[in-house]
Fold this sequence. Notes:
This protein has 493 residues and is α/β, with parallel strands linked by helices. 33% of the residues lie in helices and 15% in strands. Mn(2+) binds at residues 75, 394, 436, 472.
Amino acid sequence: MSSASASSTDWTPSTWKSKHVAQGVEYPDQDKLSKVLSKLSTLPPLVTPSEIERLRFQLGQVQRNEAFLLHAGDCAESFDACTNENISAKIGLILSFSLILIWGARLPIVRVGRIAGQYAKPRSSKTEKVGDQEVLSFRGDNVNGYSSPLFFLPLESSFSPLPIRLDIADRRPDPERLLRAYFHSATTLNHVRGLLTSGFASLHQPRDWSLSHVRSPSLKNEFESIVEDLTDALDFSRTIGQDAGASFEHGGARSTVGEVDFYTSHEGLMLDYEQALTRKCPVPKTVSSVPNQQGYYNTSAHFLWIGDRTRQIDGGHVEYFRGIRNPIGIKVGPSMKNDELVKLLDIVNPDKISGKITLISRYGAGKVENYLPDHIKAVKASGHPVVWVCDPMHGNTLTSSTGLKTRHFHAIINELTSCIRIHGECGSRLGGVSLEFTGELNDEGFSVTECLGGSMELSEEQLGLRYQSFCDPRLNFEQSLDVAFLISNHYKN
Length: 493
Ligand code: PEP
Ligand code: MN
């Protein structure tokens, strides 16, 4: 495949169709698919070129060690979870996490949520077993129906408090779901924008970000003391007349703790959908010196990433991604060869634009040592500017003795601390983290129980208590703050 620049004429939003598309969905009703796609292509953009360019600029700052990236949210969103409570809890946790990081790292935090469009899921097999039936795998709410809240549990599991409910017809891919995904994304984004422009992110509100339920006194005290430190700092700057709306200016990027920048992201898996939301727009004058320059923007999210299962250099996903101006992520796992990684960078970023590429490594705690150093060296030798981010979740998934998909807090921390150390040893720097976490609480105010360990020492026996993920296991509120303090203390010391 050619490594032509994105601006070259051999790329259009549909050239991916001539390539093999991994994880493709077979729609039984093609007419309906066409109608849906043509409707989607006329609907308004969800995000704007200037927001997208601003994120790319800020990721350039991350790459130059002037900021730190927090990429986090659910493994997958669901239409049912699109509620005020869930969205507020997620934003609250992202804000709490980033406040802890600002305090320790003394750097602006670039916040990118896995939110407002993270519906599609890659699956290792086309079918899966539910009870004693072999059915089409659930591919995410924008493709087919899940039907059963705990479908991956064996029927006989003593931990399944909910009956397996499965409507087989619901597993048929339905194009209408792409439209529902668009409207759920729009609703979610509207609520996020509303929250962030109405004082929810103000430093005077952190206690409203749902810390009240945190039962560990030391975790709570640590967080309260950071809030007090930062409030003091703000009062001081207000006194000396440098308040500027409670915002810290840093290296040209706005890093506000009063009203914050926040960006959306999802895995760019469903290329039909991504194509329909790709629009040719003027490149904002602030970033282009070329008169009347036009560019293709994916207007469904600020940031999109290519998953570990769809990053083949001659595949449809890489072809699509090489043509858009959005900053993009690429998952890098143990199966990535050194020269393959460099070839991939040559294809998606031939002009070596700063802030364009974020490499999200996800090897597993036991493998990071074997792969990361050589990947860092290969990228360095190629001269490609990249942001390196550690995803300590996806290489550390296991099945508990009770049959639940889980992750151990120790393994997550292990991979993360190894990453920080290895980057240092290789003359590189970890620029951010990519996490699956949730601030969701149940009706009694308890957090979910999906990952083992952490300061709350969640045991295998407790996993089934409030296991709510219908996809990968997420860190709960307390476990997430544990991770935030770990990173923060690392950069502080
Ligand atoms: C994910 O981020 O949810 C995911 C599926 O990751 P990966 O492609 O790295 O397996
Ligand atoms: Mn996941």
